[in-house]
Design brief:
Strand content: under 5%
Number of domains: 1
Helix content: over 70%
Number of helices: 4
Radius of gyration: 18 Å
Mean pLDDT: 75
Low-confidence stretches: 20-24
Largest sheet: none
Order of helices and strands: HHHH
């Protein structure tokens, strides 16, 4: 039986299952995905900040990028056993 919400949206169960891949992969893979995502977001925010003239937006983008890089540092630290 199909999920009624996904039936209304036209999404199949297979499509829905693919959207939840992070729940299925190993913890190591999930951490790598988060690291890659944070790195891409920081890079994207910095690139966007360099092309915008509005100073408030630039400051917010750079603060977001700095926060992403800070989270990257925390995730990259060796875990104590």
């Amino acid at each position: 039986m199909r999920d009624p919400v996904h039936s209304l949206l036209g999404n199949t169960r297979a499509c829905w299952e693919r959207s939840n891949l992070l729940q299925i992969i190993s913890p190591e893979g999930e951490t790598m995905t988060k690291v890659q995502d944070l790195r891409e977001q920081a890079t994207r925010a910095e690139r966007l900040a360099s092309s915008i003239l509005d100073t408030v937006t630039v400051e917010r983008l750079l603060a977001f990028a700095a926060d992403c890089r800070k989270q990257l540092g925390v995730l990259s630290e060796p875990k104590e056993a």
